[in-house]
Amino acid sequence: MAQLILRRPWFSAALGLPFVRGDGELFLSSTSPEPVLAPAGIGPGNVTVDCNPYDGTRYLTFGNGNGITRDQCTASWDLHEIQLWDERGERITDLTASTATGDGGSGYTPDLAIDGNSATFFAGDHDIGMSCHCWESSKKDAQSITIDMGSTKKVSKIMLLQGGAGNEWAVSKIRIHCSSGSSLQNYPLPLDISFGQTDIECNAGGCAVTGMDPAYYHTCDSAISIASSLYLISMILLGPALLS
C-alpha cells in the first residue's frame, strides 16, 4: 500500500474524516499498489504502508517510533491505555495483550494497557533504553505491545493514552502493525501522537489522527547515538591537535 503524507484540509471531505489543525502530520494509507505522490507543494513525499486496521485484522502491534525525553538510558516507554472500536462504532472489549519485546516486570505488564484504568500502564523492557540520550533508529519497535481481538475485525477508531503533558516516558511517534498471524507486515503505519490522548480514525480510505490532547510535542528521532555524538565532539575539539 502507499501512504500520502498531507498537511492540507482539501482532502478531508473526500476521505470522510475530520481535519484537526495542530495535530501534526496527517497520514493516509491508500490501497494503491505503488507509492502515490502527493500534489505539488503538499507534504514531504510518500511513505509505503501496508497496514490499515479498517481492512480487517486480528492483531494490532503498537511499537515505538522514536525515543523518550527521560535522560536515563535504562528508562522505558510507558503506554497507559489502548481502546479500539469496530466499523459499527462499537467498543471492542474482548481483548488480550502481550509483548514480544519484554516488559518492565511485575506491575508493568501488557494487560495493564487494556484494563480501563488510566493510572496503570505497560512499560517496556528497561534494558533496551528508550532515552533520547541513547536513541538510535535501530530501536524503532524495540518496545512494542500486541493486541489480540480474538478474531479478524475492522477497526474504525483507536485511542492511545500516554502519561500526559511533560511525561518523560512518552514517545511522540508510534508505528502500528497489522497482522492476522505471528508475522508482522513489512510497512507499518507511522503516526505522530500526543503525550496524552491521541484519537485515530480509520475507514476504507485509510487512517488519520483526528485529535491530540495535549498538542504534539516532538521528542527525538536522530540516528546518532550519544556515543557517536561524544566521538564527534572529541574529534572537533582534538582534531587540530592530532593534525599538528
Concise overview:
It comes from Cladocopium goreaui. The protein is mainly β and 244 residues long. The protein has two helices and 15 strands.
User: What amount of the residues lies in strands?
Assistant: 25-35%
Radius of gyration: 19 Å
Order of helices and strands: EHEEEEEEEEEEEEEEH
Number of domains: 1
The tally of beta strands, per DSSP, is 15
- Name the poorly predicted regions: 1-45, 224-229
State the secondary-structure class. Answer: mainly beta
**Order of neighbouring strands in the sheet with most strands:** 8-10-4-12-13
Protein name: F5/8 type C domain-containing protein
Pfam families: F5_F8_type_C (PF00754)
Organism: Cladocopium goreaui
Verbal overview:
- It comes from Cladocopium goreaui.
- The chain has 244 residues and is mainly beta.
- The protein has one domain (53-239).
- Helix content is 9%, strand content 32%.
- The strands form four sheets. The chain has a five-stranded antiparallel sheet with strand order 8-10-4-12-13, with no helix packed on it.
- A hairpin with a 2-residue loop joins strand 14 (197-203) and strand 15.
- The model is unreliable at 1-45 and 224-229 (pLDDT under 50).
Q: What is the secondary structure topology, with strand pairs?
A:
Blueprint: E1 2-6, H1 12-15, E2 26-30, E3 46-48, E4 57-64, E5 78-79, E6 81-86, E7 91-92, E8 96-98, E9 122-123, E10 144-153, E11 155-161, E12 173-179, E13 189-192, E14 197-203, E15 206-213, H2 226-243
Antiparallel strand pairs: 1-2, 1-3, 4-10, 4-12, 5-9, 6-7, 6-11, 8-10, 11-14, 12-13, 14-15
InterPro entries: FA58C, Galactose-bd-like_sf
Organism: Cladocopium goreaui
Protein name: F5/8 type C domain-containing protein
